[in-house]
Amino acid sequence: MREIKVPQINANDTTYTVNEIYFQNGELVHKQDIIASVSSSKIINDIESEFDGFIYFLKNSYDEINIGEILAYCFDTKEEYDKYLLTPKEKTKQELNKDYILTKPAQKFAKENNISEEQILSLNKKIIKTQDLQNLISNTLNKENNSFKKLSFNQIQSANAVIQSHKEIPQAFHLIKTDCTKCEEFLKEYSEKTGIITGYSEVITVVLSELFNDFPQFFSRYVNENEIEYAPYPIIGTTTDTGFGLFMPTVKCKNKMTLEKVSEIMFDYKMKSMDNSFEADDLAPGNISISYNPKKNIVSVVPIVFPNQSAMVSVCSPVKELSFDNDKNILEKSFLYLGLAFDHRVINGFCAMEFLSEISEKIENVDFAITEG
User: Fold this and answer.
1) Is the pLDDT of residue 238 over 60?
2) Which of 231, 209, 228, 202 has its CA nearest to residue 219?
């Protein structure tokens, strides 16, 4: 009997959800067969069998599973598999589940709503409360009634991050108006020249990497009331949503980053977001993030500060406005409203204004690294 355990997929998570099981218990599997998939907060990952043999799963679809926990056993022979099932000291998963405890309010609720033992066993929990049974009924109705739709795993994890952020982080917000007329012209020419659509998420990624040494606290994380932890180098995440779910891929800036390099990385991420083909390293946690909202007429967005980060920059679509030049001639200019949400335990308002002003100035003057040359 050999153990197939769940590896670490995402540095942010210690618990995953079994997404799907691809074999029946007792089926023959071969080494490198994909036997199941599990979901972390950001990615769905396939689990391969490390052995040839007959499979027995200890988990079902939608069960929670921890890093390093055994997902399945693999037996060399069918006789060994059958012997395992018949061993008295080994209980099946369903037998183990019968050890559940219903709280008194849950017992009353189950009786009033005619909830069967089979339904209770499907929860796969040791201590079952009234809320668990209410969720069970709600999920059942969702399946039967087309007017309800269950939230995706990706959306649930996004919601959890928002809840944690609002619960734990005392957040502040600044907004600055930036003349991006010059940068708009540059980006149009640059995209036509390179053939890669390049926008403000790429520009701000480069700008943030250039500000790392002067503003290290914006890339730090709050540890406790006495200390923060500085990052060794910038890892910059950008919200990516092409209609297939919200993702936060990161650009690792160990070395000097250029617009050329960042544009290539971000283009690759946009392609991956369309078919959810991100690799675990693509979604490694960052130490600062960008909320990119390119929808027309969205002027400003107040983002959250992600747990274990201290700041997030928000940027929306440019807005056309009439303005005066030095000779009082009327000109049409483009403006961006750049937002900065920050953890007030780590960063004070004056420092936040300086940081935001530096970002704005670099964009106004197109003052950021372009190419390796």
Assistant:
1) yes
2) 231
